[in-house]
Amino acid sequence: VKPKLGLSGKNYGRVVYEGLKGGLDFLKDDENINSQPFMRWRERFLFGMEGVNRASAATGEVKGHYFNVTAGTMEDVYERAEFGKALGSVIIMIDLVMGYTAIQSIAKWSRANSMILHLHRAGNSTYARQKTHGMNFRVICKWMRMAGVDHIHAGTVVGKLEGDPLMVKGFYNTLLSTQSEINLPQGLFFAQDWAALNKCLPVASGGIHCGQMHQLIHYLGDDVVLQFGGGTI
């Protein structure tokens, strides 16, 4: 949802309704939408789900919204996730900055409660875009797949999170392949058998718009979630 900061809960819910009624399948909170004074999390959940339900009724289609449950303690994370589930949401989202123990904990909760878990890569650039130290984002893709998340922002080739097409393809293969083979152009230096470990659906998000869909499908294939934020409006 853009603009992402400053809307009241009621106005935020109106944007959710209008976007979904206009043809989108899902909308989502952005990484820095949490529980600020202008819109507390409970207010956002209530008005957001009202927008989802009204849009579903108006279109006859399945709709949804990713509610950000990121919080300062796991108790707060679980409280928000439980509230979202009680309202009828089928998906929640978290930010990478929560930390790996917290991510695995909420992933375990999501499996037990039949909820989809979306991960926003907020914070990855502090160590994944360093040229002299840090790590490649492909490593984070591996970790998050092993941690049990269902979606992760994995680059776009075009748009704000653009990157080398082969490198981005390596991210996608890491998330989707059941058997990874050595592919040096894609940055895959080791073969890996993922056995029965669940796949993680890559998400193309960041400065993209509907006019780039032909490029996105060409580079990324169709086993991907396409998210258009400001580009939708």
TrEMBL record:
Transmembrane segments: none annotated. This is ribulose-bisphosphate carboxylase. Keywords: Calvin cycle, Carbon dioxide fixation, Chloroplast, Lyase, Monooxygenase, Oxidoreductase, Plastid. One of its GO terms (molecular function) is monooxygenase activity. Signal peptide: none annotated. It is an enzyme of class 4 (lyase). It comes from the Eukaryota. It catalyses: 2 (2R)-3-phosphoglycerate + 2 H(+) = D-ribulose 1,5-bisphosphate + CO2 + H2O; D-ribulose 1,5-bisphosphate + O2 = 2-phosphoglycolate + (2R)-3-phosphoglycerate + 2 H(+). The keyword Chloroplast applies. PROSITE patterns: RUBISCO_LARGE (PS00157). GO terms for biological process: reductive pentose-phosphate cycle. Residues 1-233 form the Ribulose bisphosphate carboxylase large subunit C-terminal domain. Its EC number is 4.1.1.39. It is found in: Plastid. One of its GO terms (cellular component) is plastid. It comes from uncultured eukaryote. SUPFAM superfamilies: RuBisCo, C-terminal domain. Pfam families: RuBisCO_large.
